[in-house]
Amino acid sequence: MNKMISKIVSLSLVILITLLTLDYFRIVSFTKVLRNSFYLVTVILIVFSSTIAICTSKSGFNKFINYIILVATTAGLLIYVITSKLNNVLYIALLCTIVYALMDMLIKSPE
């Protein structure tokens, strides 16, 4: 059950980050309210996914990646609040999240 929820959250993160990337490069255009809603849902899912992975994972590598994701997300959001611009720390958090989500969906076997 836990693995299935983790895979669903990972798939949702990949879809949301892809949609936000398409909006960032103006391939798809969202309204400001929808874009901000996607940002909020993405951050909530990132924190939820990382926290669950840290609490349930036995692998030190998975915990390390998720600690990096949580620290980068927290620092990036603080910098975002101060400067009102997206920053490289948030991009690092999103990149690590995509890597972990794909690893979670494709490499890890369901038990």
TrEMBL record:
The keyword Membrane applies. Keywords: Membrane, Transmembrane, Transmembrane helix. The chain crosses the membrane at residues 37-57, 64-83, 89-107. It comes from the Bacteria. This is Uncharacterized protein.
